[in-house]
Design brief:
With about 325 residues, the chain is mainly alpha-helical. The chain contains twelve helices and five strands. The strands form two sheets. Strands 1-3-2 form a three-stranded antiparallel sheet. It has a two-stranded antiparallel ribbon with strand order 4-5.
């Protein structure tokens, strides 16, 4: 079997019924190193062909933990459990650091949604947290999130004196559309704009081959959800809250568009009536102008000046005829 040469071939190979453990390991290494794939790693593990290839594989636990590391883990988790996962190459370490930046920013933004002392959040409490966040945003808070370089260096295992390495990593995150942010070199902070949006380009794997549409995402990339963790029950209400917020915003936008549509239809109807009246007035004006011109011509021809003109024309014609006769 030939090795996959592009992204679509790589993803399709995981669904192959003849997927062997050795081929699975090779494909996973390619997946974890691919520069355009930043989420959906856990979904790959749930494929029937992948599950079959892992069933009798002695490295099953190591493989699963490595893939989950890229799904919802961080570079700190890698160094803490290095003996239980694959040794990552430079490209994979760089990618895991980029994903760790996403997790750091996401946790800073979502921290306000967690209700202290209440792990099993109900729908009402999640809704209350969402309403509280909305009120704080209305007061001008949480529009901009600043993460100090020192915090990022500590959590990303980057030496404190290597700011250039950190900034290069953050620039890669921004250009890879992992988050909408800017570098504040004066304050040495990463400035994230939670209310901004990411525009995914044509290289996004979620787009169809023949689609030219642009997918609008949140200001920070959504990573895989760790449903097996002890705090999964607190993560799910947060997701529900975000979806409810998205739904309410979508409904408000739909209502606004409908109102604009009705208003435009009314304007078009009024314009049609107004232009119909304008055309009627123009037609009347043209008719009146033509009738007035005829009346003026008749008056001019029937007056003394008109009679003199006719005599002059007649005299000119007689003179021309006599000159032609005697010439």
């Amino acid at each position: 079997m030939t090795a996959p040469t592009n992204l679509n071939d790589l993803l399709s190979e995981f669904s192959s019924p003849s997927l062997s453990p050795s081929l699975l390991q090779s494909l996973l290494h390619r997946l974890l190193s691919h520069p355009s794939i930043h989420n959906g790693f856990v979904d790959v593990l749930s494929l029937p062909s992948v599950q079959a290839a892992l069933s009798n594989n002695p490295q099953r636990d190591v493989i699963v933990r490595t893939v989950e590391l890229f799904g919802f883990g961080t570079i700190g988790d890698y160094y803490e459990s290095k003996d239980a996962v694959w040794d990552l190459n430079d490209a994979q370490l760089e990618k895991l650091r980029m994903l760790s930046v996403v997790s750091i920013a996401r946790r800073r933004i979502d921290g306000d949604l967690v209700i202290d002392g209440d792990v099993d959040m109900t729908a009402d409490s999640a809704k209350a947290a969402s309403m509280d966040r909305k009120s704080r945003r209305a007061n001008g808070k949480h529009r901009i999130l600043s993460i100090p370089y020192s915090e990022l260096m500590s959590k990303l295992s980057i030496p404190a004196d290597d700011i250039r390495k950190l900034e290069d990593l953050l620039i890669q995150c921004i250009y890879a559309n992992l988050l909408s942010a800017k570098l504040d070199q004066h304050s040495k902070c990463l400035v994230v704009e939670p209310n901004a949006t990411l525009v995914r380009d044509g290289n996004d794997v979620t787009k169809s081959k023949n689609s030219n549409s642009v997918e609008i995402c949140g200001s920070i990339l959504s990573r895989d959800l760790n449903i097996s963790s002890t705090n999964a029950t607190s993560q799910l209400p947060q997701m529900i809250s975000r979806l409810e917020t998205f739904l309410s915003h979508s409904e408000a936008l739909l209502y606004t568009l409908e109102q604009f549509t009705l208003a435009n239809a009314t304007v078009r109807k009024n314009d049609a009536i107004r232009w119909k009246e304008v055309n009627r007035l123009l037609s009347e004006s043209k008719s009146n102008a033509k009738f007035g011109a005829l009346e003026r011509a008749e008056l001019e021809n029937s007056g003394p000046a008109g009679e003199r003109d006719r005599r002059e024309v007649k005299r000119s014609k007689m003179q021309a005829a006599m000159m032609q006769r005697f010439s």
